[in-house]
Amino acid sequence: MVNYRVVLRCAALTALLTLTSCSILPGTHNTPEEPTLPVERPGSWHPGWSISRPDSLAADFTQLQPNLGGQVGMAIMPVGGGRMTIFGDWTTGIAWSTIKVPLAIAALRHDPDGVGVADYAHEAITVSDNDAAEALWLSLGDGEEAAQAVQEVIDEAGDALTNVAGPKTSMDYLAFGATEWTLANQVRFASQLPCLPETAAVLSLMEQITPEQRWGLGTIEGTEFKGGWGPDDETGVYTVRQFGMVPTRSGGVAVALAAQADSGTFEDATALLDRLARLLSRHLDDLNGGKCPTLR
Predict the structure, then answer these.
(1) In this predicted model, what pLDDT tens digit does every residue of 1-22 receive, in sequence order?
(2) Of 40, 95, 211, 282, which residue is 20 to 30 A from 75 by alpha carbon distance?
(3) Is residue 244 within 8 Å of 125, Cβ to Cβ?
(4) CA–CA dist 83, 288 (Å, integer)
(5) What's the start-to-end Cα distance of the chain, in Å?
(6) Closest CA relative to residue 291, chosen from 242, 253, 234, 265
(7) Distance in angstroms (rounded) separating the CA atoms of residues 76 and 276
């Protein structure tokens, strides 16, 4: 039997896990010879060293990735803040309908008793209705005012352990769904979302996602999540994204997922997220969860 303790000790001294470049179009990425595991500690995002034990999430992801047939990304972070780990070769892209979460929060804060606002939030989150999301956006004022209100919600999600400023995601005030949101910034937002004030209503809606959109994280019981998807204007290739909070025995775990299938289709991209969710489900007991430092 291999003495994994000795192997890991030796590997820690000699192994270098290299970062690979991220290409936008499926089919043009290179499969890394070794795992790609950027790690972010509170207040920074720098490539890190990681030695994974056999049967760990990292090891299983490394085995799965070459056979996926597409580009994927998965970021994980304890709720309340802490160490972030990122897997895969997809790192950033358009937010699509995942931006409806901070949008709904901003609108409900701005006018909690407004006529139709709660109904619009319900439709925008649970069935991802675009007209309802547009109504929420218009309720916040003109484009610049709406963008600022949503930006403020996103920027609240600084790391609670270090009090660093929130993610610098720049809202697109002409088309809010076209805002670029990195996987790292999105999982950081998710890690703080349960801890932010006046978010309970939207978190409740994230538990009520329609069955037709319960792929990926939606297959994990008890998860609060929101998905988003859309095609590239030039290639027609679909990107599918999700983020949410997954319950574990040690606390909540924030997760952000993204996928582009080599086929370019929506169906194959959602199937990739299903595979990532199944992989994650097998390792929930191994993950370090967290809790908000104070009640929201």
Answers:
(1) 444 343 333 443 333 233 232 3
(2) 211
(3) no
(4) 9
(5) 50
(6) 253
(7) 12
Distance CA 292, CA 283 (A): 22
The owner of tokens 């929201």 is: 296
Q: Give the orientation angle of helix 117-126 with respect to helix 100-110, to 10 degrees.
A: 170
What is the Cα–Cα distance from 240 to 169, expressed in whole angstroms? 19
> Within 10 A of 69 (CB to CB), how many other CB atoms are there?
16
Tokens of 6: 């000795």
- For the CA atoms of the chain, what is the radius of gyration? 19
The whole-model pTM stands at 0.79
Give me the residue label for tokens 């303790």: 5
Q: Which one-letter amino acid corresponds to residue 265?
A: T
Measured at the CA of 193, the angle between CA 188 and CA 194, to 5 degrees, comes to 130
User: DSSP letter string over 28-80?
Assistant: -PPPPSS----EE-TT--B-----PPTTSHHHHHHHHGGGSSEEEEEEEEETT
Question: Counting every residue, how long is the chain?
Answer: 296
DSSP state of 253: E
CA 293, CA 196: separation in Å to the nearest integer?
11
Tokens, residue 95: 């937010």
Separation CA 162–CA 293 (nearest Å): 13
Using pLDDT thresholds of 50, 70 and 90, give the confidence band for residue 171.
Answer: low
Q: Tell me which residue of 262, 263, 256 sits closest to 216, measured CA to CA.
A: 256
The SS3 of residue 170 is coil
